[in-house]
């Protein structure tokens, strides 16, 4: 029921959907409180619903909800705090909510394993140490995505030994980390398997070898630095365009345009259009 322009729910009707476990209501204008009678719901997608406030309680909540997507809304830290009443919540997506703070009671998310905070407004300011303290209080957190914020590193002022013991993957891509030493404390996260640093200034200049060695030596984990394509730096003469010319008897005929025309043949599955630079 995505993109249906729904702005109200008849609560009495929701009692009849006792077997519903997955519900995609993205791009509507629905209040999460109107859905609590979907008793067996396990996955709920409410992205792009213009949600600002959430009012849940111990008596009014989702007892079986495992995954909740609230991306692209306008949530406050007070609203996020009320999500603690969802007892079995394991995955929470809060991408692009213009958040710059988290509630102090994140420790009450006792079963939360995956937290996606991409595209928010978290930054390395006076609140940064409290931000990391809040994250560290989520005991079962195993996957943390902080991509596309304004963070310069991991702030350790309030962290202690034993924090982030369950954390296996950190996505720190496309922040503004300028020095690998600002992420070096990730080596202390004993379960860490992967640290993604793509798109940070120090990663783009390939200055991450020390971090890579430290993380591997301490945890056995890897540091991922995928190549960032800089299309704007490439000259027109370097451009290669692949066009689909014909499909015949399972063979694809592609034309490559680069000063002179050359033909290549292959046995790939259907390829509608491919363009590389």
TrEMBL record:
Query: Which keywords, in A-to-Z order, does the entry hold?
Result: Cytoplasm, Hydrolase, Leucine-rich repeat, Repeat
Q: Which residues form a coiled coil?
A: none
- State the SUPFAM superfamilies in the record: RNI-like (SSF52047)
Keyword Cytoplasm among record annotations:
yes
Q: Where in the cell is it found?
A: Cytoplasm
Q: State the EC number(s).
A: 3.1.3.16
One GO term describing the cellular component: nucleus
Q: Name one molecular function that GO assigns to this entry.
A: protein serine/threonine phosphatase activity
**What Pfam family does this protein match (any one)?**
LRR_8
Query: Which SMART domains does this chain map to?
Result: LRR_TYP (SM00369)
User: Mind telling me which Gene3D superfamilies this protein's record contains?
Assistant: Ribonuclease Inhibitor (3.80.10.10)
PANTHER family, per the entry: X-RAY RADIATION RESISTANCE ASSOCIATED PROTEIN 1 XRRA1, X-RAY RADIATION RESISTANCE-ASSOCIATED PROTEIN 1
- In Swiss-Prot or TrEMBL terms, this protein is called Leucine rich repeat protein
